[in-house]
Amino acid sequence: MDLTLDGVGTRLGGRWVVDGIDATPPAGHLTGLLGPNGAGKTTLLRLIAGLLPPEKGGVLVEDGTPVHHLPRKGRAQRIALLEQESTSTVPLTVREVVSLGRIPYRSLWGTDPDEAAVDRALVSARADHLAERAWSSLSGGERQRVQIARALAQEPELLLLDEPTNHLDVSAQLSLLAFVRDLGTTTVAALHDLNLAAAFCEHVLVLSDGHLAAAGHPADVLRPDLLREVYGVEADILVHPRTGRPVIAFHEPAGPS
Ligand SMILES: Nc1ncnc2c1ncn2[C@@H]1O[C@H](COP(=O)(O)OP(=O)(O)OP(=O)(O)O)[C@@H](O)[C@H]1O
């Protein structure tokens, strides 16, 4: 799905927490949404999902339709948002949680035109072995995997992920991002791990205090001066010996001599 952020912004608590973002995440690719805590990443994902109306500018899809003008059911079929926190107490099995992703497709009689979608999503997210487990009994990492499966069951054209690697071990982080990168679906993922973003994203957007500080290919954007300016950290940028992607080597600032 083509996606354009056209000067989008909104206030929360009287403050512009997303303030005039212009960006075009490349269609069919993984875009990393970066920035320090409180920079506005979650708020921007909610604006892109059409869950929050913009107070200025807009989020345009395809031929320029504002996302919040899409009919609710169509929006739910085409855009999946995986939010950061998920409640742990619902008395559902994993399969039932993943089936929630199919609600936008159900007919008036509650039948799903593609019953196999849940199984495909469970397999893709490597959560099929958990299918009959109680949701409330899962670990944080297992829960994250199941939430990914729920988003995939929705078969969205635009996938929005808020810190999808949270709670995942390193192997699961790498396989999840490789999987999402190779989906061919326009995906925007808020990420805190800059090295994962550098390794897997085609494009990154760096937010700072609600503004867009930089956008582009990770190799062009993730430079020492940008990291100093936005995150207040010192780093050297190396080149990955196998992939040629940037590797960020953080270091402590020099102390007084
Ligand atoms: N409902 C709200 N009312 C007032 N302020 C809010 C509200 N929700 C978020 N904020 C503020 O908006 C700013 C941006 O929050 P947001 O959650 O979008 O940041 P973030 O970049 O996702 O942060 P993090 O990396 O910590 O998850 C923060 O300063 C936050 O405190």
Automatic annotation (TrEMBL):
Q: Which NCBIfam families match?
A: F420-0_ABC_ATP (TIGR03873)
Q: Which Gene3D superfamilies match?
A: P-loop containing nucleotide triphosphate hydrolases
Q: What is this protein called?
A: ATP-binding cassette domain-containing protein
Would I find Transport among this entry's keywords? Answer: yes
Record CDD domains:
ABC_Iron-Siderophores_B12_Hemin
Instruction: Name a GO molecular-function annotation.
Output: ATP binding
* UniProt cross-references to SMART domains, sorted A to Z: AAA
- Kindly give the SUPFAM superfamilies that the UniProt entry links to this protein: P-loop containing nucleoside triphosphate hydrolases (SSF52540)
Record carries keyword Transport? yes
Entry-linked InterPro entries: AAA+_ATPase (IPR003593), ABC_transporter-like_ATP-bd (IPR003439), ABC_transporter-like_CS (IPR017871), ABC_trnsptr_F420-0_ATP-bd_pred (IPR022286), P-loop_NTPase (IPR027417)
Q: Keywords assigned by UniProt? A: ATP-binding, Nucleotide-binding, Translocase, Transport
Tell me which residues make up the ABC transporter domain.
Answer: 3-234
